[in-house]
Inverse folding.
């Protein structure tokens, strides 16, 4: 297509942008999201023009939102007919945005976006199956004006550096070839090509928040400086570089101060280690962590980061609600974050049949178990005479002869038949009787966490350990266990 009739300066500009961001390779199939509006029609034309340059193939998908009745159906027919003329496949996806928005408690804007991208991903799966040897990508028609709207929208709602970095040229399999073009360039290109397009009446409806920015705010910026959209795009590029650097630093810091559990669906942040980082990195760490646990950073605003930071200084047990059903709770070690209903279920389980088993061989590496009442830290130590004399007297740190453990260590609440050894002769005492003798209130007995080796209770956390597991002069390896749900330095002597 070099020197061809359609390789205008505009198309060459987009070609260079595609190359810069490595959007398209020769083995690509590109699915264009086409609404029939000027931006998406421009996108589809350019992708068709560039086929001989990059060697990719093209298809289209149109999402009919079920909002504008006959006009909406006419747009779908317009796109279908255009694709038929061009000899490319086009799939029309019908949905009902108002119904979805109502049933999921969200705005029609957000519902429309979710359903569009759901349709795009569905198309991607179909073509990935069809073209097993090709890289399938989704092209959408965002331009510099869209980027400016997004930056202002995020700024108004409260955001961090990532939100101000605007729209990324490439996000996973999604590419945005028009992102460095202005709407005026797009309309001029369509006029030169004598290409018709559809006009969506909802774009002028002031009830949609992005329309308010487009219709009321951007014109004011245009009066101040006609090149504002390009300037904002350049600023977004710089902020994206800053954000990428911060993200790398934050990721490294997260590995040092945060422990993930349950397949990355919950996490505990160590307060002391967290506070070693600079505040700007701390904020990015929290953004990353919430995005990881929720599966998306969307709706995670600056206010949520502030609430999390404040939670570090609150008393144990205090909780806050976060987007995507996440809940954060202040614990002894720092902050625990997880899905709210999971937190409630695990807290309830702690007073019923909670049980978590560590086999003996698993204890040969440092381990942390996050009980609802606080973490248990396990550490195996090769003994020497000095260590034995320095065995902790703290109430919530205990040492056990590792080689006396038979099956492993289970963190749980009490069960029928539990017992412990109460003297050096190995005399056994039922756990129930021990509770009575120690005058532990009946209401607390079901809540107490135990370290158990089968039915043999090694330690009633915060109380005594069994004599059978005590360290002596014959001990070669010591299992040191710290329960972080109690007072840090409280001693038993």
């Amino acid at each position: 297509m070099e020197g061809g009739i359609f390789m205008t300066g505009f198309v060459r500009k987009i070609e260079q942008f595609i190359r810069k961001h490595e959007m398209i390779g020769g083995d690509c199939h590109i699915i264009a999201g086409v609404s029939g509006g000027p931006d998406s029609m421009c996108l589809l034309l350019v992708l068709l023009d560039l086929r001989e340059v990059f060697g990719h193939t093209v298809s289209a998908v149109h999402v009919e939102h079920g909002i504008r009745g006959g006009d909406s159906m006419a747009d779908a027919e317009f796109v279908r007919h255009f694709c038929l003329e061009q000899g490319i496949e086009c799939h029309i996806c019908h949905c009902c945005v108002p119904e979805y928005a109502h049933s999921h408690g969200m705005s029609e804007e957000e519902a429309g976006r979710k359903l569009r991208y759901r349709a795009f991903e569905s198309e991607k799966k179909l073509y990935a199956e069809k073209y097993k040897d090709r890289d399938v990508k989704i092209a959408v028609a965002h331009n510099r004006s869209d980027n400016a709207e997004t930056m202002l929208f995020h700024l108004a709602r409260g955001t961090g550096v990532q939100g101000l970095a605007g729209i990324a040229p490439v996000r996973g399999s999604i590419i945005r070839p028009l992102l460095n073009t202005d709407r005026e360039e797009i309309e001029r290109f369509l006029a030169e090509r004598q290409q018709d397009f559809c006009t969506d009446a909802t774009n002028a409806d002031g009830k949609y928040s992005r329309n308010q920015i487009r219709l009321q705010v951007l014109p004011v910026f245009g009066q101040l400086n006609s090149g504002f959209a390009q300037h904002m795009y350049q600023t977004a590029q710089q902020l994206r570089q800053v954000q990428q650097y911060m993200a790398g630093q934050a990721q490294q810091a997260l590995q040092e101060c945060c422990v993930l559990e349950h397949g990355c669906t919950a996490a505990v942040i160590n307060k002391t280690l967290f506070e070693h980082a600079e505040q700007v990195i701390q904020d990015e760490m929290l953004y990353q962590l919430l995005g990881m646990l929720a599966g998306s950073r969307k709706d995670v605003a600056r206010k949520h980061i502030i609430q999390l930071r404040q939670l570090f200084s609150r008393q144990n047990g205090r909780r806050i609600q976060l987007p995507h059903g996440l809940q954060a709770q202040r614990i002894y070690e720092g902050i625990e974050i997880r899905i709210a209903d999971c937190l409630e279920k695990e807290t309830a389980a702690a007073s019923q049949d909670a049980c978590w088993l560590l086999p003996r061989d698993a204890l040969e590496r440092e381990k942390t178990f996050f009980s609802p009442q606080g973490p248990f830290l396990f550490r195996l130590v090769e003994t020497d005479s000095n260590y034995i004399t320095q065995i902790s007297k703290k109430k919530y740190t205990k040492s056990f002869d590792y080689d006396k453990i038979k099956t492993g260590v289970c963190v749980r609440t009490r069960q029928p038949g539990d017992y412990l050894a109460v003297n050096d002769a190995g005399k056994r005492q039922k756990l129930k009787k021990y509770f009575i003798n120690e005058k532990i209130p009946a209401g607390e007995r079901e809540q107490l966490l135990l370290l158990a080796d089968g039915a043999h209770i090694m330690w009633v956390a915060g109380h005594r350990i069994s004599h059978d597991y005590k360290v002596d002069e014959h001990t070669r390896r010591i299992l040191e266990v710290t329960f972080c749900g109690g007072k840090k330095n409280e001693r038993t002597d």
Summary: Residues 65 and 95 are 5 Å apart (CA to CA). The longest strand covers residues 374-382.
